[in-house]
Specification:
425 residues, alpha/beta, D-Maltodextrin-Binding Protein, domain 2, 2 domains, three-stranded antiparallel beta sheet, 12 strands, 14% strand, globular, disordered N terminus
Length: 425
């Protein structure tokens, strides 16, 4: 997800375990079709009243943005309600239980499984060819496409080119071995305290390193929907990340407060990090010189160069009274031109691959890495217990990186805890 939204949504999702009514209000194992379900979107204009819920900054901006949709569809009226991310999860749960939901809703990718039984299936003739596999999977639950990826959030590599040059590097690292070597080399430059910033612990720290796991071929869950967290691939990726801490290239005591990591990158205390698209504006806000750093795709691990993908999906609710117009609205939001215009307004990355061909995005050197990276991304499993398992990963990986337990014992413990947590079904 977008970083500001991502943190808020993770905090909200963390309450899932305490919300006893979630399964009854939002999801079951059944997603059968009703008589008024839209299986095919017709070719007519959108009509009638259309209600949309959007969260955070997107909700504040969308109300004006949809006026162009209304101009193209003069017989429709769109009402957008902005919902704060901090209260969104509870509000959605309550609305579903009461049967008082909007036609269209923005849904954080980590929430898709929570409320999946309240969503319509994507119609058969909705063109998905412009969307890559990683973002598409964020909208799938039990292999059923329920959401359309509205915008995406992925992480790429950020590195200080001025410091890298002093260390003998004139290009981005292309492999895990090269990334490790660059971290060693830049650590020797005067003033650099961290070769690479990696979160050793704290909220979302393990999730922040999933690029290493995905790139080493890790599948967090198998086809039988069983957690697979104690595998050779998991061991390889964990040992790779752990090397940075054991060799002093990353600190186990880094301040995890918001903005501190950016401050250290701007000052040169940290030479390499990963970051989402809003990192660019955060660097600028703190006075960072754009000529002193570059972005690049995640270096290739043993299997691939694959990053984490999040963002937000658009869904149509089962209780919608205007399903045809709801899907037409989502179709309009997914048009490449609309996606580019939305990027201009909201500064979130388009999920449309064709949108990345526009001059606005293609000519931005800092954003180019994101366009390339989105061709190879992966998302966590779409299960309601992911946040609990992720939190267990945060804690256990911190114990590993601080030398309190071995990699082998840590992964056994993580597997055992994940098995106990289950998948919420």
């Amino acid at each position: 997800m977008k970083r500001s939204m991502f943190k808020a949504s993770i905090a909200a999702v963390a309450s899932v375990a305490m919300l006893a009514g979630v399964a009854g209000c939002g999801r079951t194992n059944d997603n059968s079709a009703a008589a008024d379900d839209v299986t095919t979107i017709d070719s007519g204009k959108a009509t009638g009243e259309l209600t949309v819920w959007a969260m955070g900054n997107e909700g504040e901006l969308l109300g004006d943005f949809v006026k162009d949709f209304e101009k193209e569809n003069p017989d429709v009226k769109v009402k957008v309600t902005a919902i704060p991310w901090a209260s969104a999860h509870d509000k959605i749960q309550t609305a579903i239980a009461a049967g008082k939901v909007p036609d269209v809703m923005q849904m954080g990718t980590t929430w898709m499984a929570d409320f999946s039984n309240a969503f319509q299936r994507v119609p058969e003739n909705f063109d998905l060819s412009d969307l890559s596999d990683g973002p598409l999977k964020t909208g799938q639950v039990n292999n059923v496409q329920l959401g359309i990826p509205w915008y995406v959030d992925s992480h790429v590599l950020y590195y200080r080119t001025d410091i890298a040059r002093k260390a003998g590097w004139d290009k981005a690292p292309e492999t895990f071995d090269e990334l490790h070597q660059m971290a060693k080399d830049v650590k020797s430059v005067e003033g650099v305290k961290n070769g690479m910033a990696i979160g050793a612990g704290g909220a979302d720290s393990w999730q922040g390193t999933l690029w290493a796991y995905f790139s080493d071929g890790v599948s967090l869950m198998n086809d039988k929907k069983e957690w697979t967290l104690d595998t050779p691939e998991m061991k390889e990726a964990t040992e790779y990340i752990d090397r940075f801490f054991k060799e002093g290239l990353s600190s186990t005591s880094s301040d995890a407060l918001p903005g501190v990591g950016i401050t250290k990158f701007v000052s040169g205390e940290t030479a390499i990090m990963t970051g989402g698209p809003t990192t660019i504006s955060q660097i600028a806000t703190q006075g960072g010189d754009p000529d002193t750093y570059a972005t690049a795709v995640i270096p290739k691990g043993s299997k691939s160069s694959t990053s984490f993908v999040g963002g937000a999906d658009l869904v149509v609710m089962n209780e919608s009274q205007n399903k045809q117009s709801a899907w037409k609205f989502i179709q309009w939001m997914m048009q490449p031109e609309t996606q580019v215009n939305w990027y201009r307004k909201a500064s979130v990355l388009p999920s449309s691959q064709k949108a990345w061909e526009s001059d606005v995005l293609a000519n931005d050197e800092k954003l180019k890495a994101y366009g390339d990276q989105l061709k190879s991304t992966s998302a966590p499993p779409a299960v309601v217990t992911w946040t609990q398992v992720s939190a267990a990963g945060d804690r256990i990986m911190e114990q590993i990186h601080k030398g309190q337990i071995s990699v082998e014992d840590g992964l056994k413990r993580l597997q055992s805890e994940a098995d106990s947590i289950g998948i919420g079904e």
